[in-house]
Structures are given as C-alpha cells and as structure tokens.
Amino acid sequence: MDEFASIRHWTSGRQSEEWQRERGVRLGIGDDAALIDPAAPIAGVTPPYEYVLAMDTMVETVHFNETTMSYEDIGYKALASNISDIAAMGGVPLQALVSVSVPRQLGPELMRRLYDGLYACADQYGVAIIGGDTTSSPQHLVVAVTVTGAVEAGKALRRSGAQPGDAVVLTGPVGMSAAGLHFLLAQRERGADALAGERVAQLVQAHQRPAPSVRAGRLLLARETCHSLNDVSDGLASEAWEIAEASGLAVSLFEEQLPRSGSMTAYAGAAGIDPLEWMLYGGEDYVLLGSMELGDAAAAQVAFHSEGLPFYIIGETAAGTPAVELIRKTVKGELRQRLAKKGYNHFE
C-alpha cells in the first residue's frame, strides 16, 4: 500500500464534510493544504476572537512503547496532549494537522488502529482532522500533532498573569498518570501478576487516555478572576515554577491541600513509593494549575462542583523572587521546603 492509499485507509470516512464545515473547515484532507474560514462562527466563543496554536510530538521509546500503550492509546494521547495546551489558554480546540513518521516494518493496520484512537479523541472534543504529512522512519514511530483553537480576543489565560495574593488552584488530582506508568513498567519487568489486587485500572486509564480540561479552562476564563493558567504536563512542581518565573513572584503549595487520588495513594503504598514524588514530579496529568483572585476561589470551587468537576485550592502567591515552596505541617509547626525546579525534561 503506497503513501496515498495508506492515508485514505487511515482517514477516509471518519468525519463528514458537513461536520467539518460546522468547525470552520472549507477544505480538509485531500489537497496540498487545508482551507479554514477565519470568519466562521465558533460555538461557545464570543467574537472577536484570536486563534490559539499548539504542537506536540510523541516519539516511540521516549513517550511510549508497546508495553505501556496500545496503538489506539498512542493516537488518542497524541491529540489529547495538544488539546490540553489549548485548554490551558482558556480556548476551544477546533482543527488538527497530524504528521506521522512510520517505520517500514509497521504495517498499515497498526497505523489504522492509531488513527482509530486519534479520531476517537477528535470526535470527543469536536476537533476536525484536516491534513498533515506522512513519511517513512528508519526505526521508530513519531507522531506530531498541531491543533488550532480559538479564544476571545485579549482574554487568553497566560502563565505570566499571576498576581501577589492570588489563590493557587488545581482542576484535578495529580500523580495518577505517573503511577499508571509505573504499574505498566512493573508489569513488563515482573510479569502480568505484578502487584496483583491493586486498583490500578484508573491509574492506567489516566496515563493512556488523559482527559484534557477544556471545560475547566472555559469556566475559569468566564469568571474573569483567573490571572494565570498552565497545564500539568511535566509535573506540578515544574508547572508551578513556570508560573512563578513568568509572573515574577513566589508560589507556596500546601501539602495537606494537594488532592490525592485514593487509588494512586494505595498503589504507591504497595509499591513502596512516596506518592508526593509522583504528584510533584510525575507529569502527564493534563489537569490545569493556575492562580486567581483569593476572594473568588471558594465561589469558583462551588461552581465547578455544581457541574461535577473537581477543583482544589492548594496554595497562594506572594511578591518576591520567583520560587516554589511546599508548606508541610509537622508536630513542630510548619516546615517550608523549597521545591526543585524539575519534572520531565527531554534534555536532562
């Protein structure tokens, strides 16, 4: 099967022209480039609006392997990680370009499965797949996705907007994806019965099929009291440092207010690992971390809960040299621990 036959096999019949037209697409897959109507109305976004662009790449042996993810999971997560970047700006995802570099030994049916997962994510979040590129790869599979989105003009939520005296907020638990990955790798090393009996399905799901927080980002944008926002892709500590440095202030996180998934905590205990390590430095949770007016944080929490969405107030910001610290309660009083500026880093 040649390149063009492969593309048709992977993409044809997935999204109707009418469905894509509702998302601003005038010409999708099949020509030299796609055409987008910049004046098309966008559901839920009040004009005038700005476009938001994001791109992520997933590389075999770096981000995934056959032990930790199925091909459907690879496709789903490649798009979900980009949608999360749009969500972190308070935006709505619209279209996606998908480029794949495929080893010759990887047959068209396995790639079809990857596109099954990619389109499952696209349909769930209303994203039109409009084109991309296909090349061969000498050894490893590479999937690169670019997503477009939209946000009300001048309203995008940035890392640099935090103000002293803000509440630090989080839209979901952290550490679950790292725990799921740990379990999958332990399975590979110790066999299928590794740590049997632990409730790990939720953790594996968090790693393989993360849920971008698009609705949460839109709710925070609409409140007009959220000053900064970031998605937790490289770990809570790393993302807090990014806000602290971009905004030029100090961030304090309260250990007792950090949300701990029961399944993650139970698995960490069985594995002999401090769950805080996964929570602070694990990454790939794709929840949102941000700061907002302290006086509106409790009301925002109520609003989130009324929609069945999690929301946690986990810290505060203060004027000062950029830094991130964890405040822990001990029998001797508060212990302030400066958090390392680390998380997942491709060049370390």
From TrEMBL:
Annotated residues for binding of Mg(2+) 1: 56, 133
Keywords: ATP-binding, Kinase, Magnesium, Metal-binding, Nucleotide-binding, Thiamine biosynthesis, Transferase
Family annotation (InterPro entries): PurM-like_C_dom (IPR010918), PurM-like_C_sf (IPR036676), PurM-like_N (IPR016188), PurM-like_N_sf (IPR036921), ThiL-like (IPR006283)
Occurrences of domain PurM-like C-terminal (ranges): 163-320
Amino acids binding substrate: 63, 284, 344
Enzyme class: transferase
Residues engaged in binding Mg(2+) 3: 32, 85, 231
Protein EC: 2.7.4.16
Any one GO MF annotation of this record: kinase activity
Residues annotated as binding Mg(2+) 2: 56, 85
Chain residues that bind Mg(2+) 5: 234
Domain PurM-like N-terminal: 30-151
Annotated coiled-coil segments of the chain: none
Xref: Pfam families: AIRS, AIRS_C
Domain of life (superkingdom): Bacteria
Pathway(s): Cofactor biosynthesis; thiamine diphosphate biosynthesis; thiamine diphosphate from thiamine phosphate: step 1/1
Reaction catalysed by this enzyme: thiamine phosphate + ATP = thiamine diphosphate + ADP
Extra facts: Reaction mechanism of ThiL seems to utilize a direct, inline transfer of the gamma-phosphate of ATP to TMP rather than a phosphorylated enzyme intermediate.
HAMAP family for this protein: TMP_kinase
Function: Catalyzes the ATP-dependent phosphorylation of thiamine-monophosphate (TMP) to form thiamine-pyrophosphate (TPP), the active form of vitamin B1.
Protein name listed in UniProt: Thiamine-monophosphate kinase
Organism: Paenibacillus glycanilyticus
